[in-house]
Amino acid sequence: MTNSSLPQVLAPVAAVAAVVAGTSLLVTVPAALVLVALLTWAYLYPYRRASLHPSFANLHGPVNSSAVFGNWRDFLDSANDDGTDSSLPLEWTEPWPTGRIHGFFGTHIFYSTDPGAMSYMLANDEVFQKPPRLLNLLGILVGGQGLLMLEGNPHRRARKAMNPTFGPPAIRELVPLFYDKAFELRDKFASFFDPANDGVALARRAEGDDKIVVGGRRKVDVQKPLAEFALDVIGTAGFSHDTAALNSSPSEFTDAWRAMQVSLGQKGKRELAQLFAMMPVLEKIPVDAQVKMTAYNDAAVKVGKRLVGNKMAALEAAGGDAKSELGRDLVSLLLKSNLASKTSEKMTTDEIVDQIRTFLFAGAETTAVAMSYALWRLGRHPEMQDKLRKEILTVEEDNPSFDTLNGLTYLEYFVREILRIHSPVSNTIRMAMSDVVIPLSKPTKGRDGSLVDSVVLRKGTTVMIPIASVNVASSIWGPDATTFNPDRHATEPTIKTPGIYANLMTFIGGPRNCIGYRFSIAEIKVALFVLLRSFSFEVLPDMPEQRRMPGIDLRSYSLGQGLPLAPEMPLLVRVLE
Ligand code: HEM
Fold it and tell me: Does 514 carry a binding-site annotation?
């Protein structure tokens, strides 16, 4: 049966609807449920059909564990030993680097950690685009014209205009702004030790905590100030707006951000994870979180429009002189490069506002979660903390240049390893927009025992790029792939991935790679440089586990301490003499 015969599939649905219309309420409710199930089944029919090509069907993968959810629920809780993240369980990706997992209602999803397959999918961004349902969800969060949302020519045009804004010379200029905020972050950490702050809940209190807050150490939820720092950095360096999250000044925008964080955090890990899993079907998130996210987005649009308006007016007042000093921030750079563009390529005010929303969405929490794990790892590996601090203390200035920071080898290796083992974005998905043959760099064994060197996907098939799984694949990183070891980066890896940075898939690769990766790496280095000169970090005596989930809320959740699961990363912090 072809897609064009879909109306035939809907015929029984219409029959059920007719019966339902004439029956009592008692019958109507279950019948309505049946109707919904049938409609869903019919709606997903083309996707299920799309996945049935024999070469795709021949791929190994986990058995289907639910007729409704497929394998989605099997991997949402799949943290590995030692807190290593992977997007799919290693029990799947290690024996079957290229495989097939079951999606909703009998659909199939293609995944691969094979470098050749990933390079092919990422390079061919015309064929592999974001699925419409993902775009619907993203559109709610970042508006319709942000870089993340665009495909094809509009994406290429916007990306060309924005690339210089994120190049090394631009980031070099932004680093002093990162330091300004990092010093505020340092002061915030110092304020936790102010006797006037005694009794302030710096992290949730667990039984026995009163013993650890004395003796020069304090239990601190490091994730919260780091999230505030990351937001303020995007605010000031992104669009010259001090969101003032670190100094807790009231602001419509920052208050809306806080309310959204609280609302998302109130959902249990499982619930949020399921929310992500339901995304292809529902596109909806819990009502309260949705209300708070809408309020936050409205505030972001309002601030964005005001800022862009002011900057445009300043440019006009300067007679459109592109050299006029608007500010060093990303949006000012964008406006300046906009001036130099051909009329047909110029971005509109609304497009630039959507870029601001995109930077906030894509750049703040991602970087915050990486920095939180950096401190957690330093707590777990005191010898690495000593080594890193020693290297950092070889620099005399408190705010060395971008180039000096980049000359610190162990800092570079440490940041790479954090981004490898704790990739803030664990996976991304695409949909094949036409029938396509994906070549593999290493043949894999099919279910029928034959060697498969390419896979045919039909139009409409969903593909997963399992970012975090590729980062810990033994075929790429060797038998100790899941061990946290910064020194591994001293040696060039022999198996190359298409990753844009340090052979990692963290920022993916190809034309849709993360435009902000240099920004983020510089920000992480500045934060570590400043914090390690003033503080030391230890894990709590009962070593609570840190868990992440795929989905909208990227934060780490703390599991243990006899407390309910919550977004938090509690560490013991000590002021250095
Ligand atoms: C550790 C921090 C970060 C991580 C792990 C990260 C990761 C990613 C990933 C995986 C993508 C690809 C998404 C997809 O196509 O499905 C992406 C795209 C993007 N990122 Fe980042 N990102 C980070 C920081 C930033 C920052 C700081 C900014 C901006 C200030 C930023 C802006 C963007 C934008 C605009 C895109 C869309 C690029 C395009 O489609 O052309 N990111 N990022």
Answer: yes
Summarised one tens digit per residue, pLDDT across range 218-240 is: 999 999 999 999 999 999 999 88
Ligand 1 and 362: CB distance under 6 A: yes
The Cα 41–Cα 29 span in angstroms is: 18
Using the Cα atoms of residue 221, residue 358, residue 548 and residue 179 in order, give the sign of their dihedral: negative
323 inside domain: no
Q: What is the ipTM of this complex?
A: 0.99
Look at ligand 1, atom 19, and give the residue with the nearest C-alpha.
514
Range of the domain at 23: 1-50
CA distance 260 to 218: 27
Report if residue 32 sits inside a domain. yes
Ligand 1: atom nearest CA of 520 is 27
- What is the number of structural domains in the chain? 1
Alpha carbons 400 and 43: distance in angstroms, whole number: 57
Q: Is residue 33 part of a domain?
A: yes
DSSP 486: G
In this structure, is residue 437 part of a structural domain? no
